[in-house]
Design goal:
The complex is a heterodimer of chains A (298) and B (269). Chain A is an alpha/beta fold. Helix content of chain A is 27%, strand content 20%. Chain A has nine helices and ten strands. In chain A, strands 2-3-1-4-5-6 form a six-stranded mixed beta sheet. A two-stranded antiparallel sheet of chain A has the order 7-10. Chain A has a two-stranded antiparallel sheet with strand order 8-9. In chain A, helix 1 crosses helix 6, helix 4 crosses helix 5 and helix 4 crosses helix 7. The two termini of chain A are 33 Å apart. The relative contact order of chain A is 0.13. With 269 residues, chain B is an alpha/beta fold. The chains are: A alpha/beta (298), B alpha/beta (269). The interface between A and B is large, with 33 and 44 residues. The structure holds iron/sulfur cluster (3 copies).
């Protein structure tokens, strides 16, 4: 993220707190001495519709609008909205996304079968498109910090180290914009989000993660793969189920590999779902700070 | 997912209970049956059963093939007759805990008669019926569980007959424990299988499993990950909520029937 100016796109679903989050970030920019402009689309917010907010800061900002491929970061309070906003990211931009999923009313094409049209994104596709994805189960992190509804502050917390705003500016902005009754919960959620650690983005072109900086805490889990038992790309259950995109295939398709080993949260999903007994998850020492909670596989 | 199920899922070494020289198993890539076998091993672990007093009986089919990989007392029998062998075994050795693994073709078509009579007699067996809506091992023919409209080798223009609701069938026949689980809800599966094994009387668990190789391919349902996802949609909580709010009318669904998972019927004996 450039130090002197930047563009952040916040997206989500009505009622999640996109507009408030955007106001907090804008206020933090202002308190840090930047010019800032912000614009939002919230016409459908009362109907569970899409809400998005553009935010640009710098020495002098003329327009709040972020064009396609211009956002330094996308903060998505809902999984699918995050996926949908990927075209807004500049190459090398950061996607901060909550694992929360809210199927839109239009996805209930089949009322008996439930949400049938909520698009499924192959996580490995996403990983290839956006190297720096910081996905967190924000609602669980917020719940652990005191109030699940403060999940938007968790995501702001994840965003905060990327922006050149001092901690006091963030805190002042939260205090000034969040209703008093929810203030402490949001402060705690923000701190919890800020404390989350994500693996370094893979170096461009390699598709493999960079070596971890020594200062980072050790990853929570690791996977052992029995190569001879894995049935490879025709199965791919674990690759698609892993919420952290840890697993993938080399070009020769078999067996599965840990392509982002540092991201494993030891959620066990891959082990439980592998029909071939080919994966064993080992839990390492849990680092300080809230751990990411496993997502469901829907 | 219950805390107990998660605890059983953490730290289990499945390899202790597998016939390692037989691995990898013959099931196709992504076949749901392997997920069921894992759940079964976890369920047994959570019950802390003595492996020497545990017997697994199966008939013929991809699902029945599972017993070949369990490193324990197993009986691989003739097509559709797993329950009769199991009944005999239980009569001869009432001290054994007997688990039957069967499929929809094996258990509901060829062995349908044995199923209803085992349920009627309420024999103390735990029967797991892995339903993948097709005959996988013989090449994807129509099964008594195939949903109308589905393509199989013997119904190239789509099945036309109504399918069995296996759970309703065995409930009506007299089973004292009836549940439905799914490979896409793997930890709930542990809980259901453990409850079925612990139950005294005929306990039946229908398990929605996937056959990506035939059923998935013929019906363009994608491979295993897509099929697992599809399964979830058939019993999404969203659906329950909608139904509870009466947004949904009463008429039965024309295509894929909705499924209820969990314990559907229980009678203490
Ligand atoms: S344990 Fe969870 S995070 Fe780790 S590889 Fe498996 S699915 Fe991914
Ligand atoms: S789920 Fe198991 S068999 Fe399938 S790709 Fe992953 S490791 Fe291989
Ligand atoms: S044919 Fe179908 S049911 Fe049989 S092993 Fe293959 S995928 Fe599984």
């Amino acid at each position: 993220m450039p130090a002197e100016s930047g563009s952040v796109l916040l997206v989500g679903v009505g009622g999640q707190g996109v507009v408030l989050s955007s106001a907090v970030a804008a206020d933090a920019a202002r308190r840090s001495g930047f010019d800032v402009k912000q614009s939002e689309v919230h016409g459908m917010s009362q109907r569970g519709g899409v809400v998005s907010s553009h935010l640009r800061y710098g020495p002098l900002v003329h327009s709040p609008l972020i064009g396609a491929g211009e956002a330094d970061a996308v903060v998505a309070l809902e999984w699918n909205e995050g996926v949908r906003a990927i075209p807004a990211l500049r190459p090398g931009g950061t996607l901060i996304v909550s694992l929360d999923r809210i199927p839109p009313p239009s996805a209930f094409v089949d009322r008996h079968g439930g949400a049938v049209a909520y698009p499924a994104v192959a996580p490995d596709t996403l990983r290839r498109t956006v190297p720096d994805v910081r996905a967190a189960d924000a609602t669980s992190v917020a719940a652990a910090a005191g109030n699940a509804r403060a999940m938007n502050s968790v995501l702001l917390g994840i965003l905060s180290p990327l922006l050149p705003f001092p901690a006091e500016a963030w805190d002042g902005a939260i205090a000034a914009n969040v209703p008093r009754a929810a203030l402490e919960a949001n402060r705690a959620a923000f701190a919890a989000g800020r404390a989350l650690r994500f693996p370094a983005a893979p170096a461009p072109g390699t598709g493999r993660p960079r070596r971890r900086a020594p200062a980072e805490p050790p990853s929570v889990g690791s996977v052992d793969i029995v190569d001879a038992w894995c049935k490879g790309e025709d199965c791919a259950i674990c690759v698609r189920a892993c919420p952290e995109y840890v697993l993938g295939f080399e070009p020769d398709a078999r067996p599965v590999r840990a392509v982002r080993p540092d991201a494993c949260t030891a959620c066990m999903l891959c082990e439980i779902l592998c029909p071939d007994f080919a994966i064993t998850v080992r839990r390492a020492a849990v680092p300080a700070g809230p751990s990411l909670v496993a997502a469901e596989t829907t | 997912m219950t805390a107990k199920a998660l605890a059983a899922a953490t730290g289990i070494d499945y390899r202790e209970h597998l016939r390692l020289p037989m691995m990898p198993h013959i099931l196709c890539p992504g076949c749901g049956h392997g997920i069921v076998l894992k759940a079964l091993l976890r369920a047994i672990r959570s019950l802390d059963l003595d492996w020497d007093r545990l017997a697994f009986v199966a008939g013929i089919g991809c699902s029945s093939r599972l017993v070949g990989y369990i490193d324990g007392c197993t009986l691989h029998t003739t097509h559709g007759r797993a329950l009769t062998f199991a009944t005999g075994l239980k009569l001869a050795r009432p001290d054994l805990t007997v688990v039957v693994i069967t499929g929809d073709g094996d258990g509901l078509a060829i062995g349908g008669n044995h199923l209803i009579h085992a349920a009627r007699r309420d024999v103390d067996l735990a029967c797991l019926l892995l339903n993948n809506e097709t005959y996988g091992m013989t090449g994807g023919q129509v099964a008594p569980t195939t949903v109308p409209g589905s393509v199989s080798t013997t119904t190239p223009r789509g099945a036309t007959e109504p399918p069995f609701d296996a759970c309703a069938l065995v409930t009506a026949a007299g089973a004292s424990f009836v549940a439905r689980g799914a490979t896409s809800l793997p930890l709930e599966l542990d809980t259901l299988i453990a409850a079925a094994i612990a139950h005294r009387g005929f306990s039946f668990v229908e398990i929605e499993s996937d056959c990506p190789e035939y059923f998935g391919r013929y019906n363009r349902l994608g491979r295993a990950p897509e099929m697992l996802q599809q399964q979830r949609r058939r019993f999404d909580e969203v659906d329950e909520t909608l139904a509870a709010k009466r947004f949904v009318g009463a008429p039965p669904h024309a295509g894929v029937p909705r499924l209820r998972t969990g314990v559907l019927h229980e009678r203490k004996t």
